[in-house]
Amino acid sequence: MPGHDIDRLLSFADTLADAARGAILPFFRTAHAVTDKGDASFDPVTEADQTAERAMREMIARAHPEHAVLGEEYGGALTREGYQWIIDPIDGTRAFIAGLPLWGVLIGLYHDGKPLIGVMDQPYLDERYRGWMDGANVTAHGQTRPLKTRACDGLGEAILSSTDPYLFEGAEAEAFARVRGAAKLTRFGYDCYAYAMAASGTMDAVIESGLKPFDIAALIPILTGAGGGVCAWDGGDASAGGRVLAWGDARVRDAAIAALR
Fold first, then answer.
1. Looking at the domain that runs over 155-260, which CATH code has it been given?
2. Tens-digit pLDDT profile for residues 28-40
3. pTM for this predicted structure
4. What is 6-146's CATH superfamily?
5. How many CA atoms lie within 13 A of 140 on its CB side?
6. Which of 74, 97, 256, 260 could disulfide-pair with 233, CB 3.0 to 4.6 Å?
């Protein structure tokens, strides 16, 4: 992309993902401390979350002290000026503490408030998904290949995902039910991994609500670079989170937006 050294920035994002891998894997499927930070519902944070975010923040501070940082565990605020790393050390902490390999490390970089690059790393499966708005790839077990979403005629042929069937309430639940009723198949519980599957061309859409910037920042360049996209339920900008629709084919996007209204 003009004005940005995408290769260099992606290389640095890879070093952040490597550091997070090293911090997280020793905790996976082992006994470790889990804290509930939720007020009404279970919202876990683990030693692995905190250790990995600290490691990434320290690396960013050393290499790019002029860059802002927003992370799930240690805070920050979205900025519209300059570079900002937006990180979630473990997206899918509930899956992590259940021993399921469906979580991921999310590393996004915005410039002037707009998505630039993103990495979703699944350390246990040795899969790393990378996107840069006009391209995307995945490296798994030493082999790298381009990512490409698949063609899908509409919701009737679509495989849909959302993190939890109880994520939606009231009018949101009714809207999601309309999309789910039209879709060929719906699967739950995959967090960021579902977005990677949409970018890989094995799923067609992900619908969620209540997302924070660090839940989606890394995934926007991956989906977009693979030929799909991420938008709000009304088709607008989703870079700050909220109600999010990720899609592989524009026909699925248009049908989903119509049903979500």
1. 3.40.190.80
2. 999 877 887 765 5
3. 0.95
4. Fructose-1,6-Bisphosphatase, subunit A, domain 1 (3.30.540.10)
5. 13
6. 260
